[in-house]
Design brief:
With about 170 residues, the chain is mainly α. Helices cover about 65% and strands about 0% of the residues. It contains eight helices and no strands. α7 packs across α8.
């Protein structure tokens, strides 16, 4: 395959998914700069491994898996400074609505309070439109575990929005 046709194939497959990849990375990282770095590394890895992609229909899953793993690699390689800022990245200008909406703000703030194990599958399903099977494959979980996390995430989100104490932690039984 020539370099020009490879580049065209890459742009055709990956280009339309770039905004979703960034949103997913932003939800994982909760930091715009880190999300940009993760997506950039994802694009580099995807470019290098493009010839290994066997099924073009699975490109979305393939890219989201790379994002997730690249995000994890970031923390394996270095220790980032932490700052005490309320929910960084949740009010990103790309995610904000044109008109200020207190309900949207409240939901985003509540999402930021959820543990990652609950927030991630909920964001993947509701914001990015992934199926339970796709979420399970990305998170390396069974369908039942994904459904349980989605159920508990919604329950915790409702409790937070209603001003109740959050319930059903990861180690707690229902």
């Amino acid at each position: 395959m020539s370099e020009v046709s490879r580049k065209k194939q890459f742009e055709t497959l990956v280009g339309p998914l770039a905004p979703d990849l960034f949103r997913y990375a932003l939800w994982l990282a909760r930091d715009r700069q880190l999300a940009e770095d993760v997506v950039q590394e994802t694009m580099i890895r995807a470019w290098k491994a493009l010839d290994t992609l066997r099924d073009v229909a699975s490109v979305k899953h393939w890219l989201f898996t790379i994002v997730r793993r690249e995000h994890a690699r970031t923390f394996e390689r270095k220790r980032l400074d932490t700052y005490d800022i309320d929910s960084p990245g949740l009010m990103d200008e790309n995610l904000a609505t044109a008109d200020w909406n207190h309900d949207v703000h409240d939901v985003r703030e509540a999402l930021g309070k959820l543990e990652t194990d609950y927030r991630e599958p909920l964001v993947l399903q509701v914001m990015l439109g992934h199926s339970v099977k796709e979420i399970g494959a990305l998170m390396e979980l069974g369908d039942g575990a994904v459904l349980t996390r989605l159920f508990r995430a919604r329950k915790k989100l409702k409790a937070i929005l209603d001003g109740e104490p959050a319930q059903l932690g990861m180690n707690e039984k229902r």
